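User: For my dataset I need records formatted as: sequence, then structure tokens, nothing else. Please produce one.
Assistant:
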Amino acid sequence: MRILIISHKPPYPSVDGGTLATLNMCLGLAKAGNNVTVLTLSTQKHPSSLEIIPNEIKALINFEILHVNIKTTLLGYILNFIFSLRPYNIERFISTPFKRLIRKILLNEYFDVVQLEGLYLYPYISTIRSHFRGTLSLRSHNVEHHIWLKLAENETNKLKRFYFRILAKRLARVESNISSKVDALVAIAEPDRQWFVENNFNKPTITIPAGYLKEEVAEDIEPVDFPSICYIGALDWLPNTEGLNWFINWVWPRIQSEIPEIEFHIAGRNASEELAERLITERNIIFHGQVANSSTFLSRCPIMVVPLLSGSGIRIKIIEGMYLQRAIVATSMAVKGIDIKHNEHILIADSPDEFAKAVCSLIYNPNLGKKIAHNAMEFAQNNLDAIVLAEKLTQFYKQLEG
């Protein structure tokens, strides 16, 4: 099949879980025998170019990249709030040149399927419909309004809490009406698919988890000194910074009091000055900033923590950690959508005391950590192979064609 993937941020470089989920899906589709074209925006926050994409990836995927100037500003938030009913985090991605490029590609090339990578491509649906008669699908990485509702619930600033609730309401309106705009829904997590079905989505749906490619797994990586734990995530995404701050405030002191020599290695891009300064000055925290290769970073620490308090979809970094045979401690929110079991594939903990005890138990009992990590790796290999999942998605699209 000929498949056009449209994304609001480039899958390469894969600087966060969302971009990695998109890249692995595109590579999986290509390796499953499809002709894949990726049309993407490149912004100041997520820059890319054909020159930096490895030749082995370009051999599998055709890329069309448009560089646009997109900035979030206080004035932009205010004007959007007063004069628009659209969510600002969707409206800010509207680009007339991108519409022109979509139109040009659809007029000059044939595709069986156009797949939108997330809700932020919603404003381009009318342009696509004007020039494309095939299957138009939405790949939902999250139920977006759930993220902002949870952020509002946890927010102490009254003004921010009010704004987050308004944003969630606007996003929910878009998500509830998306069924009339597309032909199919591809959800990354089953709870997300169920939400759409229960909220007016009456077209074909399927759940295809974010997959991983086996050849990405790093080998012969020298570990850091034991005991150590690690965290990786985009530090400009509110759910990540919320969870990391919760961990450092409430869980980390409990772990340190039990194991004073323990080190906490943190990697992530675009940390605010305030957060970066804190990570640099905190005792026994080693802040690596943006790392060149996430699998190399994760492979150096035996224990990975994922303290997520809000969000939906699937945390691709958990899947990556499972493939890399890491022992993972995560909140129940972080593992939502992944059919893994507590004490078998992962340790799940939601309170500071439970989370700290789980981390310490892995350090005191290395055999427990090795067992859980091995089970996690086997689960990932059996259920989350990107090529197998892409073949399943391809079959879904072929059935839609009749």
